[in-house]
Specification:
By secondary structure, this protein is mainly beta. The chain has no helices and eleven strands. The protein is 0% helix and 57% strand. The protein is elongated, with a radius of gyration of 14 Å.
């Protein structure tokens, strides 16, 4: 069955950048409303950024000015560009989105990615 596939996580030094990408495993589907969440060890999962189907964005206060959520339309993906990374950004990052067919926008439902690890060293 269709899944959300995440990529771009890794190890980076403080002040560095990473670009996370999330897309459906089948190219006939895209993400309607979507977002990124993260969960650090011993903490609850928290919202990082969201983007609506019309492009409205929302960010957690802790990442404002550093992270940008956008769409890569060529790949029907939701992208999280993370700049000026801090050690406290270290977490497993999860993509979430409502998957719809590109043609007709038939709604499949709400999906979560498996998570991609982001580790920021000081």
């Amino acid at each position: 069955q269709v899944q959300l596939v995440e990529s771009g996580g890794g190890l980076v030094q403080a002040g560095g950048s990473l670009r996370l990408s999330c897309a459906a495993s089948r190219s006939i589907f895209t993400i309607n409303d979507g977002g990124w969440y993260r969960q650090a060890p011993g903490k609850q999962r928290e919202l990082v950024a969201t983007i609506t189907s019309t492009g409205t964005t929302n960010y957690a206060d802790s990442v404002k000015g550093r992270f940008t959520i956008s769409r890569d339309n060529a790949n029907n993906a939701v992208v999280l560009q993370m700049n000026s990374l801090k050690p406290e950004d270290t977490a497993a990052y999860y993509c979430n989105g409502e998957l719809v067919s590109i043609i007709g926008r038939f709604v499949l439902g709400d999906y979560w990615g498996q998570g991609t690890q982001v580790t920021v060293s000081s």
